[in-house]
Amino acid sequence: MGGVGAPTVSRSAPMKAFLVAPSIVAILLVLLAGMVEAQDRQFVAAEWDKAAAAEYLDARAEWWTTWSGAARDHETACVSCHTTLPYALARPRLRASLGEPMATKAETRVLADVVKRVELWNEVGPFYPDQTLGLPKTSESRGTEAVLNALILATRDEDGGALTRETRRAFENLWALQFTRGEDAGSWAWLNFGLAPWESDGAAYFGAALAAVAVGRALDQYASLPDVRERVTLLRTYLRKDSADRTSLDRVMALWASVSVGDVLTETQKQSLLSDLWLFQNPDGGWTLSSLGAWQRQDGSLPVKESDAYATGLISFVLLEAGVPRDDDNLNSALLWLAQSQDSATGTWTAASLNKDRDPESDRGRFMSDAATAFAVLALERAESLNH
Asked: Does this model's pTM top 0.85?
């Protein structure tokens, strides 16, 4: 045990053995205590409340689909990177754990809106038209929505076991808007409202990575179709470009894309990313979103330095997807931090805005916590699944 062998006791020297034994016993007790403490620091699934997390996510999705700010034509709601998309990715993963027989009312509404907008693609208006917000908001809206729709429906199909007609249609819409020439070839126009991290300069890379994840999730060997392979090659080339010089957040997304469609990051780049992530990891095991890029808050307030669940959940989930062992010391510390950081009263995990010092109790102030809660769920559920 711990490299310490059993004591050798001389039959001719009983007094000596008597004097030595207590010291060895003390050492063994210290080692045993250390082992117990190490076991106590291991992540265990029972340490977080799945039902409370589901209740929060459902309530926020229901609020979003009825909020006037999210309302769009044909009685639909827009898809958001902070609330709707994370919800659509995470909520199905809780269903089996909670023994739910079918999608919740909130899930059904979110999916119905996506399907409706996919099928009426040429009739529904963009999320943000040029006529009211100026160029190029229509093209940005279409590109962003096409990526999010494809990812949401490909994720839904994973439970059904087959690629549905509307998901194929979503991918048709996606490829029709992919840039095929110029420096942005392989990517899509992406919403930019100057809001970090998802709607700001450079966020098109985040969108392209999500498109790769969508393709990777598509069933029925969709990615192997000849015309799709050509598009994915273009996408992969875009994601590879300058990947080493991008923000740590973009590189995490590149790793997720690489898991999904392959050959985005080299093995050397993957190891470099891991080294940087371990360097940025806080002593408590978490990560801070503001440390993963060079963002400045618009109101001049100081960025939050404490660990947050969006950064920690996203990184942990992607690392698990990429095959980093769950019992890796650094990753285990992150999972343990997540398991212990859920708010017991609300079921949520929190993260702060990169743009303003927002009231965390306000609806807009909860946007980052919506994403944080969803990605905490994704990471913890993925870690638990590796036990089975």
From this structure: yes
